[in-house]
Design goal:
Distance between the termini: 45 Å
Number of strands: 70
Helix content: under 10%
Strand content: 35-45%
Shape: globular
Strand order of the largest sheet: 44-45-48-51-54-57-60-63-66-69-70
Largest sheet: 11 strands, parallel
Radius of gyration: 28 Å
Length: 881
């Protein structure tokens, strides 16, 4: 089955694989995929490497060492002899594919070619070159005779291979799976890679295909690059347990008892790749474990900065015995490495930035030299406090020089004489007046922990330096500035270029420049019931919305606090945790805009929180509200400024309302009224119970979704906007784009998503792309997620414009699966009642999908869909405007 994970063209439907997690998200309420690309986030990756002549290295036999090593030319790895633990192996060194039945997709081709292996040696490997048209299929199966001869009737085994993904022209979901227990072309277990253009959107997956529909029960974020790195991927099947590994690391397990026997194969959704050393063996023979944390593949610092600590987890195949490993810097004068103490199977390694330059840090497993991790380090020159002066005033810097009432949650602003260019090296620093460093802001690769210290916090990647015209806005890290404290700002001379500052060439800013300020003497009173936020002026309690959210979380004894937000644009990521009764009240609906350019590639996943100071995992939503009952959003706009593009994974919620303890009869509640919610993909992710009254929700791909019980949209506008990824200059989209409004993932028994007296409209997208209408219409009310979720959606007395396709519901269309249930009833499934055109005339619905149901007035009462009291009857909640 085929699925297009993006909005629909008026003239063509590009499709990819039906995925249980495509559209709104992944399993267990985590939106992991959707739109035109799947999700993932950064983590460890193995890398091919060649050793340099001189290296700084650390071995497990010494706490720290520096060595000079010279490598010999590596030889290609070949298959060992089969044994009681290794049943089959193919290294393709014979230059043929005699063990395989190969079926390339249209335009695709197989070949056995010379390539460079993980150690830099020349080897032969099987290459698959994908065709130019997106398609998905089982492309390789081991021959029956080979399988029978090598494995007989064995049902439990692992299949393992080294895989190097290769770049090819089409984008979107790029699944590359090894198959096990293959019984038919549409029935098998899977484990492998989901490759994207961005390594921040890649993941390792495991699951199964049943009757042509894939369920990816395991989706674990890992950085997977193309064209350079080999990854050792292993699918292990033992009884009903399915486990996937990458580079020896167990990345997840699921269970399924559907298939009890079957052979191995390969599946791809149009991905080019090399594959080598395919092995099948005893699942009791476990792989060597080798991973690093943090698992980022890059590291940036200034010379002289504090050392960077990495934890290496290295274990022998028994999983408990610590393993040897080496770590090497190819430029020890730039970054030196040293190994610290080992506890259990974990060892600390420190990287010390010494001088400006670049270095590659390579970690290699002692028991399996094919397991390699590599970090590319970029070290900027050591920070030097500039002595330059510019006669700075309030016209150039904010807070103004010698300001005495600066806010602790405010931004810094620096205005040049003309538009500056952000440099590639250097930092921005905030010091106390005595020279103590308080905060360091890197030019790129930044992160932050949002929330209150001592409680759950949201770790996110951030873009704290923004340039608009001549002005640079700099956002310090959360909680770094204290009340009643004097500070000065320092900026490296290399941080900005191409513009003068108050008539002088920019040579950095130091204490001598005089950009100093003192913060307000005391924090707002803990007993405040109304907390004001204003991005300018002098009478507010806070400059940022998050500052006010931190206040109400810290002072939790105050009931029903109101955060009153003055007109302004608040460019920030937001987090609220475990705080009931909070109202965020804007001064005006269009005047208060809370926004950020957050999206799947920058911060993957729906979002989780953690204690301490997490720097990742907080998800792609602008506002992550977690376990906070009766949150009210009133008279404001929440907006994602991200625009969909093929180079990104584009899921970008404006709010993820998370109710982790929700049940059919209880759950956290959200009220949104007189408010706008704007994004392109996955705009609203909702759990628990939510009510939207007199709101407008805009998007184009699955832009209302979530694992909810009941969400009511009353007197609201649901606006389809043009998809920025497909401009009219592309002939396939000359008539505009379409999309899907919903992808419901309602829990069993819940009312799901109900739209009452609302209007379905359309508008140009943020890049000016139009929506297809009339005979070219390609917008659908909903599509299904192909999982165990229930597709409960009802449109009651709603007006629908001409962008909605007559079929209405995308069941068995463009590869989208049938909903659950496939046959709607009054109380469950895809339903409509009294649909109208925009003039209020009855809409012709004779062409609607056979998987949907037109309700009667009696049905409406039976199903409890006629008013908000009925929709929320399970929890006895009747919210009021």
């Amino acid at each position: 089955m085929i699925k297009r994970c993006g909005s629909l063209a008026a003239t063509t439907l590009l499709c990819a694989l039906v995925l249980s997690a495509c559209g709104g998200g992944g399993s267990s309420g985590s939106s992991e995929t959707g739109g035109s690309a799947n999700s993932a986030s950064s983590a460890g990756t193995s890398a091919s490497t060649s050793s340099a002549a001189t290296n700084s290295s650390a071995s497990s036999n010494a706490a720290s060492s520096t060595a000079t090593s010279t490598s010999s030319v590596a030889s290609a790895q070949t298959c060992p002899a089969t044994s009681s633990n290794l049943y089959f192996c193919d290294d393709f060194q014979a230059g043929n594919t005699d063990n395989w039945d190969l079926t390339a997709n249209t335009g695709g081709a197989f070949s056995v070619e010379d390539t460079t292996d993980f150690a830099g040696a020349t080897t032969k490997a099987l290459k698959y070159t994908a065709g130019g048209t997106a398609s998905n299929a089982v492309i390789a199966l081991i021959k029956d005779a080979v399988w029978t001869a090598k494995l007989g009737n064995k049902a439990d085994y692992y299949v393992e291979a080294r895989i190097k993904p290769l770049t090819n022209g089409t984008t979107g979901n790029k699944q590359l799976y090894m198959l096990g227990r293959y019984t038919a072309s549409n029935n098998w277990y899977l484990g492998g890679l989901n490759v994207q253009n961005s390594t921040g959107s890649t993941q390792v997956e495991a699951g199964y295909m049943k009757a042509g529909t894939i369920t990816r029960a395991v989706q674990t974020k890992r950085a997977i690059s193309q064209d350079s790195n080999w990854y050792k991927v292993r699918l292990e099947i033992s009884g009903s347990t399915i486990t996937v590994y990458m580079d020896g690391e167990n990345l997840g397990t699921t269970t399924d008892a559907t298939f009890t026997s079957g052979k191995i194969g390969l599946f791809t959704n149009n991905k080019s790749f090399f594959i080598d050393d395919i092995k099948v063996g005893n699942p009791a023979d476990k792989p060597v474990l080798f991973s690093i944390s943090p698992a980022a593949t890059t590291y940036a610092a200034d010379a002289g900065d504090s050392p960077y600590t990495i934890t290496v987890n290295a274990a022998k195949s028994d999983g408990t015995t610590a393993d040897d490993f080496s770590v090497v810097s190819d430029k020890p004068g730039v970054v030196s490495v040293s190994k610290g103490a080992t506890t259990g199977t974990s060892t600390t390694v420190t990287l010390t930035p010494l001088t400006a330059g670049t270095a590659n840090i390579t970690f290699t497993s002692g028991s399996d030299s094919t397991l390699i991790k590599k970090i590319a380090a970029t070290i900027a020159p050591q920070y030097v406090d500039s002595t330059a002066t510019y006669s700075l005033s309030a016209s150039q810097v904010y807070p103004a020089p010698a300001a005495t009432t600066a806010y602790t949650d405010d931004n810094l602003k620096l205005t040049f004489d003309s538009a500056p260019t952000l440099g590639s090296a250097g930092t921005i620093r905030i010091f106390k007046s005595d020279g103590t460093l308080v905060d360091r802001i890197n030019l790129s690769g930044e992160s932050d922990s949002i929330g209150v210290s001592g409680s759950n916090r949201r770790g996110v990647a951030t873009t704290p330096i923004q340039i608009s015209g001549n002005t640079v806005t700099i956002t310090p890290h959360s909680g770094k500035l204290a009340y009643g404290t004097s500070y000065y700002v320092g900026i490296s001379s290399t941080a900005f270029s191409g513009a003068t500052l108050n008539g002088k060439a920019f040579a950095g800013i130091g204490k001598a420049a005089g950009w100093s300020f003192t913060t307000k003497s005391t924090a707002p009173a803990a007993t405040l019931t109304t907390i004001t936020v204003d991005d300018d002026g002098s009478s507010a309690d806070y400059r940022s919305v998050q500052g006010a959210l931190n206040h109400v979380m810290t002072n939790s004894s105050v009931s029903n606090p109101v955060i009153a937000v003055k007109n302004g644009t608040y460019n920030e990521l937001l987090y609220l945790y475990n705080r009931a009764g909070v109202t965020i009240q804007g001064e005006s609906r269009s005047g208060v805009v809370m926004q950020y350019n957050n999206y799947e590639t920058l911060n993957s996943g729906s979002g989780t929180s953690a204690t301490g100071a997490p720097t990742s995992g907080g998800g792609r939503a602008v506002f992550f509200a977690e376990n906070s009952d009766l949150l009210t959003l009133d008279t404001l706009t929440l907006k994602s400024t991200h625009t969909r593009a093929s180079t990104y994974s584009n899921q970008a919620e404006v709010i993820f309302f998370k109710s982790s303890t929700a049940t059919l009869t209880s759950g956290h509640r959200l009220i949104a009224k007189n408010a706008d919610f704007y994004s392109e993909q996955d705009t609203l992710q909702l759990q628990g119970y939510t009510w939207f009254y007199n709101t407008k929700v805009s998007g184009n791909v699955d832009f209302i979704w979530g694992n909810n019980y009941a969400s009511l949209f009353e007197n609201s506008i649901i606006e389809m906007i043009g998809d920025s990824q497909y401009p009219a200059s592309n002939a396939s989209y000359a008539n505009g784009t379409g999309g899907y409004i919903l992808q419901a993932r309602t829990y069993s028994g819940g009312k799901g998503f109900v739209f009452l007296n609302s209007s379905l409209t359309y508008a140009d997208g943020p890049a000016g792309v139009k929506v297809a209408t009339g005979s070219n219409a390609s917008s659908y009310l909903a599509r299904a997620a192909a999982g165990t979720w229930v597709d409960n959606i009802a449109f009651v007395s709603c007006k629908m414009d001409t962008h909605i396709i007559p079929l209405g519901w995308a069941a068995n269309v463009s590869g989208n699966p049938a909903p659950n249930p496939a046959t709607a009833t009054a109380s469950t499934g895809w339903r409509e009642y009294g649909s109208m055109d925009m003039s209020g005339n009855p809409l012709t619905v004779s062409g609607r999908s056979s998987n949907s149901l037109q309700l009667t007035a009696t049905d409406l009462g039976t199903a409890g869909l006629g008013d908000r009291n009925a929709v929320f009857s399970a929890i006895g909640w009747t919210p009021t405007p």
